[in-house]
Structures are given as C-alpha cells and as structure tokens.
Automatic annotation (TrEMBL):
<feature type="domain" description="Plant heme peroxidase family profile">
    <location>
        <begin position="101"/>
        <end position="276"/>
    </location>
</feature>
<keyword id="KW-0560">Oxidoreductase</keyword>
<dbReference type="GO" id="GO:0004601">
    <property type="term" value="F:peroxidase activity"/>
</dbReference>
<comment type="similarity">
    <text>Belongs to the peroxidase family.</text>
</comment>
<dbReference type="GO" id="GO:0034599">
    <property type="term" value="P:cellular response to oxidative stress"/>
</dbReference>
<protein>
    <submittedName>
        <fullName>Thylakoid lumenal protein</fullName>
    </submittedName>
</protein>
<dbReference type="InterPro" id="IPR044831">
    <property type="entry name" value="Ccp1-like"/>
</dbReference>
<dbReference type="GO" id="GO:0000302">
    <property type="term" value="P:response to reactive oxygen species"/>
</dbReference>
<dbReference type="GO" id="GO:0009535">
    <property type="term" value="C:chloroplast thylakoid membrane"/>
</dbReference>
<dbReference type="Pfam" id="PF00141">
    <property type="entry name" value="peroxidase"/>
</dbReference>
<dbReference type="GO" id="GO:0042744">
    <property type="term" value="P:hydrogen peroxide catabolic process"/>
</dbReference>
<dbReference type="InterPro" id="IPR010255">
    <property type="entry name" value="Haem_peroxidase_sf"/>
</dbReference>
<dbReference type="InterPro" id="IPR002016">
    <property type="entry name" value="Haem_peroxidase"/>
</dbReference>
<dbReference type="InterPro" id="IPR002207">
    <property type="entry name" value="Peroxidase_I"/>
</dbReference>
<dbReference type="GO" id="GO:0020037">
    <property type="term" value="F:heme binding"/>
</dbReference>
C-alpha cells in the first residue's frame, strides 16, 4: 500500500531571505580565559542581517527545526503505513471469518441432527494432542480416510462430508486462499454450539423463534467468543495423527475420560462442561459422569445453569474450554487469509469539476 510523503526541507528556501543580497556575516569569535580550566566563547560582532533582522542564528534554528520535522514526518509515515496495513489485514480476516460463519450457520441449520457429530469431530481432531511430543491437536488430520475410519471416529463421516461441501463454497469466494480443515472443523463446532444455544433460547420462549432470538441476543453468550475468533489461522497436518490417543467415548469409563482430559491439561470441570461433545445423548452422558465424585458437582452446576434464562455459567465455561481445546499445540498464523490490498482512486470528483 502506498503512502503519501512530503518534505519539509523543500519549504526551507521560502522561509529564508535572499542571503546573497547581504554582506558576509561575521563569524569571528574571541576566546577569553576567565578561570583556569574554563573557556568562554563570546561573539565579537552581532549576528544580525542589516535590513530585516533575520539573524544567522535564526537561520540555523530554522534549518534545525526543519530537519527535525523531516525526521519525524518520515518515521511517522512508516508507522502510519504499518498501522494501516495491520488494520487492513484485520479487516480482511474479520470479513472472511464472517463469511465462514454465515456458510456454516446455514449448513448446520439445515441439518441440526449432525450437531452432536460435528462437536465430536472437533473434539477428536483436537484430542490427539500429546504434551510430551508436542504433536497432534486440532490440525485437521481427521480428514484423512485412515483416521476418520478409526473406531473412535465411527459415525462422524456425515459431519465431515457436510463440512467438505461448506469448504468448497467458502474456498470458491476466498481472496486469501482456501480455509484450512483445522480452522473449518473448530469453527464448525463454534457454529454448532451457537445453534444449540439459540435453539435452547427458542424453547424457553415457548417455541417462538423471534422471541428466542431476542432472548439469546439479550442474555446469551455471543459476546464471549472474542478470543476464539482471534485464534484463527491454524495449520493443517499433512498426515494422520498416531493411533491410540483417543478413547471410544461411548464405551469409555469415567476414569478413562478423566485420564484423557488430564493428559491434555483439563480436569473434571472441563469434562463435565463438554458432555455434549461426548455422544449424541447429552443427558445419558451426564448421568454416567455424575457417578464420579469429582465430576458430579460440575454436572449439577451446569444442569442448573441450563435451566436459567441466560445459561451463563454453562455457556461461558463451555466457550472457554472450547477456545483452549481448539488451540492445543497450534501456532496460530495471524496473517492467514490476508492478501495484498489494491488501492483505488476515484476520478469522478475531478471529472465533475472539469465538466462544471
């Protein structure tokens, strides 16, 4: 992006009188030794031009100020250019993310029965993270046929197929390159959760969709997604993640679930709040989790929260947990999906003046 620059130095001649019309300015100085070890510099002749009083000292001050202004202006233009580029990139990423959300919302709204599978798809893609080797995590590796066909991912192919269709739509209009599967899968989980939050609000409004939307807008957790949205720029893996890192949630004991959550840095609280990610029947999953004394208090807490109008505790804790889960082991590229901006200049004002 180009930056408009100008020079203060070019204005200097207009600030000075025509010095050629004046006699030479005296510059001789007399040095007097007032005390031993000190030197005093005094001027013999006044440094004043004869006609308008524009002194040589004034000229030097003017030149010094002009140089300073020039340095400030040049450095300021670099900062302004950098800031403008950063603002443009943020806007590009924000617009792209907005398009992704719209596409995902429409697709998931059309197939709400896939919401549990989309949530588990995001969970299983991220839960391959291994702290010891810093490998795995939400890297889109679950898209590979050898990984999606594993026992723990059984029944998730339909959700992946839906996201493949959404990806084609998103990529066809993207100016900053195709969206990574890693980003797409986690953004799909976000959209699925928002869909379920909104559906809950509509139920509490007696099935009235308009009132439910107003309820969710007024009391819902939509404003809590800021950090999740900023962590946008995950990199896709180029091969499947190692096997044996994820249990079959539907067959695992609560202790096995706790062990796996502990391995990635979570605890009973996060296990309880992510009950919707662990199977198609959230109530049945919570009944199982409630048999564990460490998980039980959190299950009760979130069940009670879901009975309130706002569901604040449940929704906020779930968003916080998903945000952390969706970044396990990932180095986020905050310049992903940006592209060179093309400056456009309108000639219409100038043409209108010429016409006038």
């Amino acid at each position: 992006m180009g930056a408009t620059t100008f020079s203060f130095i070019s204005t200097l001649p207009s600030l000075l009188p025509n010095l050629s019309s004046y006699p030479s300015l005296p510059i001789a100085h007399r040095y007097s030794h007032k005390t031993q070890g000190s030197i005093c510099c005094q001027s013999i002749d006044p440094l004043v031009c004869q006609e308008d009083g524009f002194s040589r000292r004034d000229m030097l001050k003017c030149f010094g100020a002009t140089i300073g202004m020039e340095i400030i202006a040049s450095s300021g233009s670099s900062v302004q250019t950098a800031n403008a580029a950063d603002i443009i990139q943020r806007r590009q990423r924000s617009d792209f993310l907005g398009d992704i959300k719209k596409s995902l919302y429409t697709a998931i709204k059309g197939k709400p029965e896939l919401v549990p599978s989309i949530l588990m798809l995001a969970l299983n893609d991220a839960m391959t993270y291994d702290k010891a080797t810093k490998s795995g995590g939400p890297n889109g590796s679950i898209r590979f046929s050898s990984e999606i066909s594993r026992l723990e991912n059984q029944g998730l192919s339909a959700a992946l197929d839906l996201l493949e269709e959404v990806k084609k739509e998103i990529d066809s209009s993207s100016k900053g390159g195709p969206i990574s599967y890693a980003d797409l899968i986690q953004c799909a989980a976000q959209s699925a959760l928002k869909n379920s939050f909104l559906a809950s609000a509509i139920r509490k409004a007696g099935g009235n969709e308009e009132k439910g939307n107003l309820l969710y807008t007024a009391y819902g957790s939509n404003g809590q997604w800021g950090l999740f949205d900023r962590n946008f720029g995950r990199t896709d893996a180029q091969e499947p993640d190692p096997e044996g890192r994820i249990p079959q949630w539907g067959k695992a004991s609560v202790q096995e679930m706790k062990d796996k959550f502990t391995a990635v840095g979570f605890g009973p609280r996060q296990l309880a709040v992510m009950s919707a990610f662990l199977g198609p029947d959230q109530a049945a999953t919570e009944s199982l989790l409630a048999t564990d004394k460490d998980v039980l208090p959190w299950v009760v807490k979130y069940q009670r929260s879901r009975e309130t109008v706002s569901e604040t505790d449940y929704e906020v804790d779930l968003i916080t947990t998903l945000t952390k889960l969706s970044c396990l082991g990932q180095q986020i590229n905050y310049e992903a999906y940006t592209y060179p901006a093309v400056a456009t200049i309108s000639l219409m004002p100038a043409l209108e003046k010429l016409g006038a």
